[in-house]
Amino acid sequence: MAIVFTHLRAFQAVATHRGFSAAARALRVSQPTLTTQVRELEERYGVELFLRQGRQIELTEAGRSLLSISARLFKLHEEAEELLLNFGELKTGALKIAAVSPFHATDMIARFIERYPSFKVNMLLGNSDRTLKRILELEADIAILAHTIDDPRIKTITFSTQEIVAFVNDDHAWWQRDEIELAELAGEPLILREEGSTTRYALERAAEAANVALTPFMEIGSREGVWKAVERGLGIGVVADFEFVPHPRMKTLRISGGMIKTEYRLAFLEDRKTVRSIKAFVETVL
């Protein structure tokens, strides 16, 4: 009993777009047609793939398991189409880049598009944990990360090393200084990103190694929010040096006693390293 491809495609679309209406628009079919295809898939195998509560849907355990498989299947389908369309020369296609920061990513994408102008490139931003998850779940083709990865499924290539610095506003007692000791951060109100953030991880790892107790005063889930809190004098922020944008009311302070650093890496699945678009991106930007 072979699975019907259109039924699987309908399931994939509904699960990905989290609704029948959005999925129908994406596939350019009517919603009743899509609903029928999903129902026939469920009835054919005697399983429930979605929990329906009005217009809200949630994947069942069977649905989540099937989505993991179908995502890989449709990614392979895209790669097969890419191979056939571009055999002999890579001309067009689509690439999704997940990144912890727009700074490196935008430069890389610009260089890639300059060489492959017909490619469609999407950038997905998030913290390190979310960015890594995106390539593992095939939401993205390539990730730009800033920490080491011990996972045999993932291949990484280091392309840049950056120093972590502190920054304060012009009312802070350290405004006239250019450098501080890591130990001086003990007891100070720190404005940090959420757990999983690259800069926070690097700072906390260095502090733990130096036996320095940090005091996070506020946790904010965006880079812009951290900057605004520091500008208003609520505490001290940390940032990779290349990400700091000059500001008349804020300045950076080097943290002495051993450089706190992040190593930025390109990452992609080991079993996708021969995909032509991924290879082309890596060869273009490194």
Q: Care to describe what's here?
A:
With about 290 residues, this protein is an alpha/beta fold. Helices cover about 40% and strands about 25% of the residues. The protein has nine helices and twelve strands. The strands form two sheets. Strands 3, 4, 5, 6, 7, 8, 9, 10, 11 and 12 form a ten-stranded mixed sheet that branches. Helix 5 links the parallel strand 3 and strand 4. Helix 1 packs across helix 4 and helix 5 packs across helix 9. The longest helix is centred in the first third of the chain and has 25 residues. It is elongated, with a radius of gyration of 23 Å. The model has no long low-confidence stretch (mean pLDDT about 90).
Fold blueprint:
Layout lengths: L4 H13 L2 H8 L3 H15 L4 E4 L2 E4 L1 H25 L7 E7 L2 H14 L3 E7 L2 H9 L5 E4 L8 E16 L9 E3 L7 E5 L4 H12 L5 E6 L2 H9 L4 E5 L9 E7 L4 E9 L6 H10 L1
Parallel strand pairs: 3-4, 3-5, 7-11, 8-9, 8-10
Antiparallel strand pairs: 1-2, 5-12, 6-10, 6-11, 6-12
Helix pairs in contact: 1-2, 1-3, 1-4, 2-3, 5-9
Number of helices: 9
Query: What Rg do the Cα atoms give?
Result: 23 Å
Helix vs. strand class:
alpha/beta
The helix/strand series, from N terminus to C terminus, equals: HHHEEHEHEHEEEEHEHEEEH
What would the principal axes of the Cα set say about the shape? elongated
Instruction: Report on the biggest sheet.
Output: 10 strands, mixed
Mean pLDDT: 90
* First-to-last CA distance: 47 Å
Q: Strand content of the residues, in percent?
A: 25-35%
